[in-house]
């Protein structure tokens, strides 16, 4: 059970950005460099997500 259950205090929100065009991405994503390593994490959510499932949302961090 979550420790915040039943607590009316608002949880802090994390910043997020909806990206719809490549120009909205940081230059490190668009022009990667071997000299500067970049770690990317992603999460996919969907309905019966497998080879033929429907992708609903993809989060990249």
From TrEMBL:
Query: Which domain of life does the protein's organism represent?
Result: Eukaryota
Which PANTHER family does its entry note? EGALITARIAN, ISOFORM B
> What is this protein identified as?
3'-5' exonuclease domain-containing protein
Organism field: Aegilops tauschii subsp. strangulata (Goatgrass)
């Amino acid at each position: 059970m979550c420790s915040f259950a039943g607590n009316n205090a608002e949880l802090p929100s994390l910043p997020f950005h909806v990206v719809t065009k490549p120009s909205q991405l940081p230059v490190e994503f668009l022009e990667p460099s071997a000299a500067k390593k970049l770690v990317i994490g992603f999460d996919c959510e969907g309905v019966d997500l497998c080879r033929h499932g429907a992708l609903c949302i993809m989060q990249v961090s």
